[in-house]
Design a protein that fits this description.
This protein is mainly alpha-helical. About 75% of the residues lie in helices and about 0% in strands. Helix 4 (about 45-55) packs parallel to helix 7 (about 95-125), helix 4 (about 45-55) packs antiparallel against helix 16 (about 335-365) and helix 6 (about 75-90) runs antiparallel to helix 7.
């Protein structure tokens, strides 16, 4: 039992090492956006593209993986993801706008590889604890995003050298994560199941997944909640600065929102213990996010900390739910690989439209009222795919079987349409 716990602890540690690198490369740009915009004289739309460009490619590998006959081993994907991320972060050191945008694009591709590989790894290595392990994974993502948002301005001010220095330092943890996965890559080269098969003698999982109504519900929930999250990433600090906060204080408020996302993610499996399915979680996500966005936009500035807390809690629950749904709604690892590619591949394309649309609408109206009304409308609409995806069903799941117990979250294995 002790040896088994050691193996589990090692597996979780490796997951966390990758997870802490899957957002800071994008999140850290938000507080620095005014400084970057001033240096390169960027418009609101062009500045928004710095956060939008990587998001457009967050799902790039997922779209390709969904149609691969055989997927590379998850360990191969994760090592490659970290290596590419290091290169992308260092590329942004070059003093040219083209390098900044190219580095952002490459970072998005690198993160997309990690995004897609992780849910399949969790499904494969922790099939009876998907909700709990997904929660740990999402806490690592959101906590690292919060830390990056909190320290990027102080590091910039303390070290000097401009905005490139704090962004370049993010290459260090990415390199450590890539090196940490190398031994496991060597050990799993010949392990059965390390490379998920695609065919099962009937229909290919890709065809099954892409024709599934349930898969599209999961995809739209992933996409819309991600869109709202990346509006926060791209514009929350700028909105607060425009309302009168200093850049450093706005960075701390942004960090608080990200930190509360970690709390919300951690609370997801605890809340799920008392629910028959995940539909109540969708409602909780929408209500908290709606109230939080409204408070950030129009409540007195001094209360922004409260509304940032509410917003972060809602988005944390939603993010953990979206990732858990990939494992919960997939009957096996093969389907999880395809559903992960579809949900995140298409979902992050949808998500990327958020910061760009908000920036363009802000440029057109010279204010934040119209953009925030649009954000609230999108938030309310999230309840539709959330309620549909939250029902207990699985894709390509025999009716005679039951999905594994997931710390209070179970599926009834009814196949989707």
């Amino acid at each position: 039992m002790t040896a088994r716990r050691g193996v589990i602890a090692l597996q979780l540690s490796l997951l966390v090492l990758v997870a802490v690198n899957l957002r800071p490369a994008v999140v850290a740009v938000g507080p620095l956006l005014p400084e970057i915009s001033d240096e390169y004289d960027l418009s609101g739309t062009a500045a928004g593209a710095l956060t939008t460009l990587p998001l457009l490619f967050f799902g790039s590998y997922g779209l390709a993986a969904a149609f691969m006959r055989r997927s590379p081993r998850s360990e191969t994907l994760l090592v490659s993801s970290m290596a590419l991320l290091v290169g992308a972060l260092l590329l942004r050191l070059v003093d040219a706008p083209a390098a900044l945008y190219a580095g952002s694009l490459a970072a998005g591709i690198a993160i997309s590889i990690g995004n897609i590989a992780m849910p399949a790894v969790i499904k494969r290595d922790h099939p009876s604890s998907i909700a709990l392990v997904t929660s740990i994974y999402t806490v690592a993502i959101t906590a690292s995003a919060a830390l990056a948002a909190a320290v990027v301005i102080p590091v910039d001010q303390a070290l000097g050298g401009g905005w490139r220095v704090p962004l370049a330092l993010l290459a260090v943890p990415a390199a450590i994560a890539g090196l940490a996965w190398l031994p496991r890559l060597a050990r799993t080269r010949d392990v059965p199941g390390a490379r998920p098969a695609v065919g099962d003698g009937t229909r290919p999982p890709a065809a099954t997944v892409w024709r599934s109504t349930l898969a599209w519900h999961v995809t739209f929930f992933m996409g819309v909640q991600s869109l709202l999250a990346y509006v926060v990433v791209g514009w929350l600090a700028t909105i607060l600065q425009d309302r009168g906060m200093t850049a450093e204080t706005a960075g701390y408020a942004f960090a608080l929102t990200n930190l509360m996302q970690a709390v919300g993610s951690l609370s997801m499996p605890l809340l799920a213990r008392h629910m028959r399915d995940q539909r109540p979680l969708a409602v909780i996500t929408v209500v908290l996010a709606f109230v939080g966005f409204a408070g950030i936009a129009w409540a007195p500035l001094g209360s922004a900390w409260l509304w940032g807390t509410v917003l972060g809690l809602g988005q944390g629950v939603g993010f953990a739910m979206a990732l858990a749904l990939i494992g919960l709604r997939a009957h096996d690892t093969r389907v999880a690989v395809q559903l992960s590619g579809m949900a995140q591949g298409c979902g992050y394309v949808v998500a990327a439209l958020g910061p760009l649309a908000v920036g363009a609408l802000h440029d057109a109206t010279h204010g934040w009222n119209a953009p925030m009304i649009l954000v609230l409308a999108i938030t309310a609409a999230l309840v539709v795919p959330g309620l549909a995806a939250g029902r207990n069903r699985t894709i390509q799941g025999p009716a005679a079987e039951r999905s594994p117990a997931l710390h209070g979250v179970q599926g009834d294995n009814r196949s989707s349409p």
